[in-house]
Amino acid sequence: MTASASRARAARTGRISRAKEAKQAAYRELVLEAALRLFAEHGYDGTKMEEVAKQAGFAPATLYTVFRSKESVYEAILEQGVWGILDASAARARGAATAWDSVIESVRGSHGYLIDHPDFLRVQLWETGSWAFEESAKTSAWARAFEGMRSLYASCIERGSVIGDDPVLMAQLTLAMQQTQLARWLETGAKQSKEAQTEQMIAMLTRTFAVSHATK
Fold it and tell me: Where are the domains of the chain?
């Protein structure tokens, strides 16, 4: 085989490989979208892989070429969603003037993301257990999110802008407050606007932790 023929063959192989990867990525997104809807409506235990495949629009055998099990689908949904929360929080907190402002804006970002993604919120509320405890962390993204919040509270404590001296406990309480408030929001028909719901959460945080309700 000549050098030019070898290069042509390698190019064709590369195109085929990229096309296959793109197809798998498209299948993956269809599966995650379908599974998220079903998990939110029926719960993890009430959802079968055959139903996910049907909702996604292809045969179960095709689904298993993308995900090996229902658990792997569930883990991928959690990972994707929590990275979404991280991105939203980081975008809000970028440029914040103080550590306390960073806490507030991070919470605004995460709260807003969850309200904008109600199916993911339902899965987070009903399937993951308490958000406040490490054993509920099923993804590396969740662990990173928790560590970020703990670090922000540690900075607030150092600067004297919050009431409290345990950043882990403060991060846990923040997550517990969010979980409780968002669960109540859903239970009461999700009637309150995102803006009102988010600012209610910020007001609770401020009353609980902020010194003189002012940033420092």
Answer: 3-68, 77-213
